[in-house]
Write a structure and sequence with these properties.
The structure is a single chain. The chain contains 21 helices and 29 strands. Among the domains are: 198 residues, Nucleotidyltransferase, domain 5 (2-Layer Sandwich), CATH 3.30.420.10; 84 residues, Alpha-Beta Plaits, CATH 3.30.70.330; 101 residues, 2-Layer Sandwich (Alpha-Beta Plaits); 88 residues, Alpha-Beta Plaits (2-Layer Sandwich). Strand 23 and strand 24 form a beta hairpin. It is 27% helix and 22% strand. By secondary structure, the chain is of the alpha+beta class. Helix 6 packs across helix 7. The strands form seven sheets. Strands 1, 2, 3, 4, 5, 6 and 7 form a seven-stranded mixed β-sheet that branches. The protein has a five-stranded antiparallel β-sheet with strand order 10-11-9-13-12, with helices on both faces. The protein has a five-stranded antiparallel β-sheet with strand order 16-17-15-19-18, sandwiched between helices. One of its GO terms (biological process) is mRNA processing. This is Epithelial splicing regulatory protein 2. Its main location: nucleus. Keywords: mRNA processing, mRNA splicing, Nucleus, Repeat, RNA-binding. Belongs to the ESRP family.
């Protein structure tokens, strides 16, 4: 038997059903016995939503009112009544089992499952299997319209069913028409209909992913804005109703191995991915989550791995993974098992522990632990920030993808952000400086399309492009080297910046409006260096958080906000893709260079690659410059150059009030570079963010 089901929400209707997170307000259903072609009683039930405000479309199409809905039962009670009434109708027809049949997938996948998940009650098993009437109809009638273009009305018109929609109540006509369509399909003697129902996975399955695996780009999305403590199960719950591939949730980490609020999610097919995109800006708790398309290559970069050790660790499926951080470097497997105690036994004992190490074998202080059930994992999480030895230990939920990303990509293989040969360390005065004054001669563009380039910005600026300073366009990239949606432009005067902000504010670029604000060079510098602008003023860059970084370049940042001249040591193609050349017109203004020809046209705060947690390197060999670079630097500046590799030492953990006198006293008896203590270089906020230390000095 089938239970033909139709529903509506307080918001969008039709193809956008469920895309606006509005609650269910109507359920209509009827039992259909296929062998005997008999039907049960048609039932219509209103549902009381938490928010009784109805959209204009809902009022117009359904004819429902908030007053009428206020007298209805809540969703959990309505679903109980649904089960009872269906069972009663089946007994009358002499049947005991049934499968749901709905008009498309939206009601089941995009409305019922997400809403019940948010309201913390379980759906009965019948809602995890259903027939999509549109797909069954297209199977029976291949010459009909494509599945995505089908509606109840178009299917009825294709069959020539003369049913007047105005004669019945909203919902009743839809169910009666669906039943008539089903009977027409049965009369065609189609053998392939109602044989393979759609399924909804009741639980997300964890598992490893190999780098050699092929991942279809049409099945991957990027979720952005996640709470930092989100686990793979939390993300699966956000996409409740959609089928995520096994091991298909990969949490993205920043350069320090900490979660950056993004995740790549792989679905079983492109249809599920398209439904996931409709959840753009749906909420996880109080935060809205942005959902965008991504590629299979991006997914494999985060989730893929090939290590035998990791593969063996993750071979035990359906385990709960906990990440431990801050372990003493001398901690052993016995110490960790003793810390966890008998109330949370580790799966396989010592085999359920995986310590993370650097390539040279040194421990990082991180470990991953397997637990066989949720209860044991919860007991382990209760030990968050308890003491082991002399250190408190942090415990977090983790994923298989995070294990591979941390262990493989961060420590045992190449970094997630590949690096070019190490650039020169001496501070080189670059030719392209960014103003840091208080004059408000700059503008900030916020909300740019992520596909926007410099040419798009110049077109957006219109006639004002002639007032842009040379090398004055600075686009900001995020941690993954992708456009962040922000850009800064240096104008020739504060008046010009004011006029641009007035003229272009909330002007459309492609399909998005762009906010334009007037700002000073100082404010621009702060944001480019990782700080933020808010109502209370400037917030400096956080010392231990990553700044913006490109996908394929690491460099030591200079003490001023600049586009580093050392970028010119490498071919531009290694830094950024080639830019488009604007089409010249007769009325075009004189040619102006908006960005350096031999360096990067996007302003980026280059960050060096460091594992997590931040540690001091054992040697300073990683900052030795190529001989040619040093020679070039020597001819371009009088800044002291390292006489030999190893002549530079880095001090970490200094008191914040440390001055030159204290440092010179500390190094008493050692020979340092003379010239009025020029060998002491205090690291600026920008450079400090690169080295990931609270406050440091570099001594020559």
């Amino acid at each position: 038997s089938l239970v033909v089901l139709f529903g509506a929400t307080a918001g969008a209707y039709g193809a956008k059903l469920g895309s606006d997170e509005r609650e269910l307000i109507l359920l209509v259903w009827q039992v259909v016995d296929l062998p005997s072609k008999k039907v049960g009683t048609l039932h219509k039930s209103l549902v009381k939503a938490d928010n009784l405000e109805l959209s204009d479309q809902c009022r117009e199409v359904s004819g429902l009112t908030p007053e009428g809905l206020g007298k209805a039962e809540p969703l959990d009670r309505v679903l109980q009544q649904f089960s009872q009434l269906v069972s009663s109708d089946l007994k009358v027809l002499g049947r005991s089992s049934y499968t749901l049949c709905s008009d498309g997938q939206l009601l089941i996948r995009q409305v019922l499952h997400p809403e019940t998940s948010k309201k913390n009650f379980l759906l009965s098993d019948c809602f995890y299997s259903f027939y999509d009437l549109r797909k069954e109809f297209h199977t029976c009638y291949p010459s009909s319209a494509a599945v995505k273009d089908q509606t109840i009305k178009t299917m009825a018109e294709y069959l020539g069913l003369g049913m007047d929609e105005t004669e019945e109540d909203f919902g009743v006509w839809q169910v009666k028409t669906m039943v008539a369509i089903i009977f027409s399909m049965l009369s065609e003697s189609c053998n392939d209909i109602f044989t393979e129902p759609e399924t909804v996975k009741c639980k997300y399955e964890t598992g490893p992913c190999s780098k050699s695996e092929t991942v279809d780009s049409e099945t991957v999305i990027r979720a952005r804005g996640l709470p930092w403590q989100s686990s793979d199960q939390d993300i699966a719950r956000f996409f409740k109703g959609l089928n995520i591939a096994k091991g298909g949730v990969a949490l993205c980490l920043n350069a320090q191995g900490r979660r950056n609020g993004e995740a790549l999610v792989r679905f079983v097919n492109s249809e599920q991915r398209d439904l996931a995109l409709e959840r753009h800006k749906h909420h996880m708790g109080s935060r809205y989550i942005e959902v965008y398309k991504a590629t299979g290559e991006e997914f494999l970069k985060i989730a893929g791995g090939t290590s035998n050790e990791v593969a063996q660790f993750l071979s035990k499926e359906n385990q709960v993974i906990i990440r431990m951080r801050g372990l003493p470097f001398t901690a052993t497997q016995e110490d960790v098992l003793g810390f966890l105690g008998p109330e949370c036994p580790v799966t396989g004992g010592k085999e359920g522990l995986l310590f993370v190490k650097y390539p040279d074998g040194r421990p990082t202080g991180d470990a991953f632990v397997l637990f066989s059930c949720e209860e044991y994992a919860q007991n382990a999480l209760k030990k968050h920030k308890e003491i082991l030895g002399k250190r408190y230990i942090e415990l977090f939920r983790s994923t298989a993808a995070e294990v591979q990303q941390v262990v493989l990509n961060r420590y045992m293989s190449t970094p997630l952000i590949p690096t070019l040969p190490t650039p020169i360390i001496p501070v080189i005065p670059p030719p392209y400086t960014i103003a840091t004054g208080s004059v408000r001669d700059c503008v900030r563009l916020r909300g740019l399309p992520y596909t926007a380039g410099i040419d798009d910005i110049l077109e957006f600026m219109g006639d004002a492009t002639g007032d842009i300073k040379p090398h004055g366009v600075h686009m900001v990239l995020n941690q993954q080297g992708r456009p962040s949606g922000d850009a800064f432009i240096q104008m020739k005067s504060a008046d010009k910046a004011f006029m641009v902000a007035q003229k272009c504010h909330k002007k459309m670029m492609k399909d998005r409006y762009v906010e334009v604000f007037q700002c000073s060079g100082e404010e621009m510098n702060f944001v480019l260096m990782g700080g933020t602008l808010n109502r209370s003023g400037l917030s400096p860059p956080p010392c231990k958080l990553p700044c913006l970084s490109p996908p394929a370049y690491a460099a030591f940042q200079t003490a001023a906000a600049v586009i580093p001249a050392e970028a010119a040591l490498y071919q531009p193609q290694a830094l950024l893709p080639a830019t488009r050349t604007p089409q010249a017109t007769a009325a075009a203004p004189p040619a102006v260079t908006y960005y350096p020809a031999q360096a990067a046209q996007l302003y980026m705060n280059y960050t060096a690659y460091y594992p997590s947690p931040p540690v001091s390197p054992t040697t300073v060999g990683y900052i030795a410059a190529p001989p040619g670079a040093v020679a070039a630097a020597a001819t371009a500046t009088h800044t002291p150059i390292l006489p030999q590799p190893g002549a530079l030492v880095r001090m970490q953990g200094l008191p914040y009030n440390t001055g030159m006198k204290e440092i010179l006293s500390f190094f008493q008896g050692y020979q340092y570079a003379p010239d009025d203590y020029n060998g002491l270089i205090q690291l600026s906020d920008q450079a400090r963010s690169v080295l990931q230390a609270p406050k440091e000095w570099v001594c020559l």
